Prior knowledge:
Radius of gyration: 13 Å
Strand content: 15-25%
Shape: globular
Helix content: 25-40%
Amino acid sequence: MEIKLDENMPQALAERLCAEGHNASTVSEENLSGASDDSVLKHATEESRLLMTFDVDFGDIRSYPVGSHAGVIVFRFNDQQWTALKEPVERLLRSGALESLPGSLAIIDEKRIRFRRKKDV
């Protein structure tokens, strides 16, 4: 799967995704640090990359409707360090849900994963 990590995501996540066989690029690698949310999502969509972010604004389906992008995963955590993110990421990878997310939205917190899939709209 093609994935773009927002600038607020830890490098360890990119490494873990690559170890799992995914192609993960970062906003920083593409000189998009500081770019607007719209610009970041536009680049991800043009590259058919699922966007992973801590930015809860991407979870607003009025601004970013399901089906208008290549997919978004929003992590809702107080602690944005890899140590807090690791177990929920492992849960996501084990679930097999990542492959069903193109065009969809997932909100992940410490305890659960909620989906708003393209077909649900």
